[in-house]
Amino acid sequence: MEKKIYEEIIDFLIKNTNAQNAEFAKKLIDTKYQILGIKNQLLENFAKNLAKNEIDDIFDGDIVYHEQILIIGYYIAYSKFENSRKIEMLKEFLPLIDNWATCDGVATRLKKLESEKEFFINLLKNEKPFYTRVGIVWIMRFNLKQNFLDTLEVFKGVKDDNYYVKMALAWAYAEAFTINTDFMVYFLSQIDDKFTRNQTISKARQSFRVSNEIKEEIVKFRIK
Question: What is the model's pTM?
Fold first, then answer.
């Protein structure tokens, strides 16, 4: 008898559990789900193999493990479904996200969804912080360079005091420094929120793609 996809996923997770890695990951990831400590490459390879087939019951069964959610997210990203179908699956997936690692891991792999850009822009207006963060991270990865000024204007409209939202904005703004440094030096002075501005400066200064000259220049924009 062929295993159901849920059983196949759980069997894979249990087989590859790493208690030592799990203890380390728990210090970095705040989630209500159980962490098994499985390396991300293993999860991604497993999901890619699943994505060779169309699976209608990928959400079936109890959701217990952090890595289980990542597999579902990666499956959506690597599946061969039409973009409209992927978006419907993402709508079902979003409520499962409760931490930065799941958000960033999945959002950065959602390639070739440019036709669905409005879906991600609308996430920026959502009151749930990880919905918003998914939107920010996806737009940063797949739309910032192509629509630089418009994207920055969209980001400026995000008004959310959640830590993970602000950190995502800072990440995106720091990434923008590698695309148009001169404009971002000006734009930095327009960021009113102290935390977001200072974190943007910190992240830009940590980047190997920002010159030492610019790193020294932007320090003066810190809000004390």
Answer: 0.95
CB atoms within 10 A of CB 197: 22
User: How far is the CA of 94 from the CAs of 76, 81, 102, 151, in angstroms?
Assistant: 12, 18, 10, 22
Q: SS3 of 218, please?
A: helix
In whole angstroms, what is the distance from residue 31 CA to residue 36 CA? 12
- Report the interhelical angle of 66-78 vs 83-93 (nearest 10°): 170
Q: Are 142 and 151 in contact (CB under 8 A)?
A: no
Give CA torsion, residues 147, 116, 197, 182, to 10 deg: -10
Work out whether the CA dihedral 106, 69, 129, 31 comes out positive or negative: negative
DSSP 219: G
Q: pLDDT tens-digit profile of 15-25? A: 999 999 999 99
Residue 204 near residue 210 (C-beta atoms within 8 A): yes
Tokens of 77: 């990203």
